[in-house]
Amino acid sequence: MVPAIETRGLSKQYGRTVAVDGIDLTVDTGDVFGFLGPNGAGKTTTMRMLTTLTKPSSGEATVAGEDVRDRPAVVEHIGYLPEEPPLFDEFTGREMLEYYAGLRDVSEADARIADLLERFDLADAADRRTDGYSKGMKQKTAIAAAILHEPEVLFLDEPTSGLDPRAARTVRETIADLAAADTTVFLSTHILPVVEELADTVGVLYEGSLVAAGAPESLAERAASGGGTLEDVFLEVTGGTGER
Fold first, then answer.
1. pLDDT tens, residue by residue, 45-70
2. Is residue 111 part of a domain?
3. Which range of residues forms the domain containing residue 58?
């Protein structure tokens, strides 16, 4: 089976600054991949390359079997939630989802939108403009837009950011449901318990390099402190900075 995501020597350089340095990575279909690293480690740059928004400087990468340099081919297979929700202030929540449904040619769009509005507790606010939404409501609307077309591979950059505990739980349950249906989820987050709960495999990026990768349990066993948690792994590979 073709991996959902595969990179070989994937790199990105801006002038003399190396943002991502030769990443080799394989994510299997249906896996939840937890992507960890300090701010500035290169996580967002990596995701932007995999979602075709930034061209690699060197190396290779495929998503759903398609070369990331072929934007139209890759976009057909993916959903993407960037760190800042891509919403139009003048649209209502429902109009926002209808807009994305039109772009993606979603079949039975009205029923799909209604289901997502209920799932994310947005039905009562669906006909209000998104510029009046809280940060958490905007985040939930953006997540609904990212999964509206049932993508094969879903990229999520800090999906629980700004969410209250109930909404964060809904997002975690949604990710688990998607993975159970063989959707591959590439999850970048600072929240280690989310990764420990959901991830099949984990990668730790530090100063542009992938410094650790594997199952959460196997990585925890490597922790020098012997604490046996992903936090111990993170502290070990980042030199004990504790920054997430």
1. 999 999 999 999 999 999 999 999 99
2. no
3. 11-86+152-237
Inter-residue contact 104 to 152 (CB < 8 Å):
no
What is this structure's pTM?
0.90
Residue 115, domain member (yes or no): no
Between 102 and 232, name the one with better pLDDT: 102
pLDDT value of residue 85: 83
pLDDT of residue 111: 96
Q: Are 117 and 93 in contact (CB under 8 A)?
A: yes
Task: Tell me how many domains the chain contains.
Answer: 1
CATH number at residue 189: 3.40.50.300
Task: Tell me whether residue 209 is in a domain.
Answer: yes
* DSSP code per residue over the chain: ---SEEEEEEEEEETTEEEEEEEEEEE-TT-EEEEE--TTSSHHHHHHHHTTSS--SEEEEEETTEETT-HHHHHTTEEEE-SS----TTSBHHHHHHHHHHHHT-TTHHHHHHHHHHHTT-GGGTTSBGGGS-HHHHHHHHHHHHHTT--SEEEEESTTTT--HHHHHHHHHHHHHHHHTT-EEEEE-S-HHHHHHH-SEEEEEETTEEEEEE-HHHHHHT-TT---SHHHHHHHHTTT----
pLDDT at 244 over 60: no
**Model confidence over 195-219: pLDDT tens digits?**
888 999 999 999 999 988 888 877 7
Q: Cα-flanking dihedrals φ and ψ of residue 25, to 5°?
A: -150, 140
Tokens for 208, please give them. Answer: 């542009």
Q: Is residue 212 part of a domain?
A: yes
> Would you place residue 230 in the very low, low, confident or very high pLDDT band (cuts 50, 70, 90)?
low
